[in-house]
Amino acid sequence: MEMSYTRIEVRPMAGALGADIYGVDLAKPLDDATFAEIERAFHDRLVLFFHDQRLTPEQHLAFSRRLGPLSRSPYVKHMDEYPDIIAVLKEADERNISTFGNAWHSDFSFLEEPPLGSVLYAREVPDHGGDTLFANMYSAYEALSEGMRRMLDPLKAMHSGRPYGVGGVSPDLKVSRSIGIERNRPEADREVAHPVVRVHPRTGRKALFVNAIYTTRFEGMTEAESKPLLDFLYAHAIRPEFTCRLRWRTHDLAIWDNRCAMHYAVNDYDGSRRLMHRTTIKGERPIGVRP
Ligand code: SIN
Asked: Which of these, 44, 2, 10, 9, lies nearest to 202 by C-alpha position?
């Protein structure tokens, strides 16, 4: 359904999700009517991209808090002076290393209450490269056959933070030294069960909720038993038709909904510095499909 807006301009960037937002200055406090339109666009497009926003860390934090209380991660070091901000940084001299978020995922899905969303602000980005990709997990779910949906609806899957944001790589591989990952954190290493199909608390729509970094297996099954179906779901969920791509410029800001979108930080900019500031919005325990 085509939505109408009077306070902001919303330009969809791809068929499945994502919108460029114009006509708003996030450095200033937002009136309720403007914020309500941003929220409506957020629930409709899942990923919103605001351009040329000149924000201090305090203004970034103030806008983030409009979306909800902030949460901190069990294993990523926060900034000393801003404990609610993570600096996602890769220095120009860091080559052939793994970077944070460089596999499809929903942020910190291993928490009992995974984050509602994140707010990422570009402080310094390469001339080209360092894009972030997103995939719509409602679309992924809805495109499955009826038989597959019926089978997945009651299932739960286990999630663990042990890969520390760099899924599919050995714990010994070097991760960007700048991101400050702390390993062997009991809160990140344990497994937590979440519904495989999650009902969004605001839209009521069903979304696939498994991801390649943090999901380890289906509840009650081994990793080997789970792998073929999980691999199928991961490949299915990122079909190009379900995705959009953000090409960052310094001072751009994105917000995304972790409950119904996955994302992937492309690590293709060796030789350039990339510094992003991320805040994370607290979420609730995922609700599954009622039988
Ligand atoms: C992340 O939050 O997963 C990182 C996203 C990015 O650096 O583009």
From this structure: 44
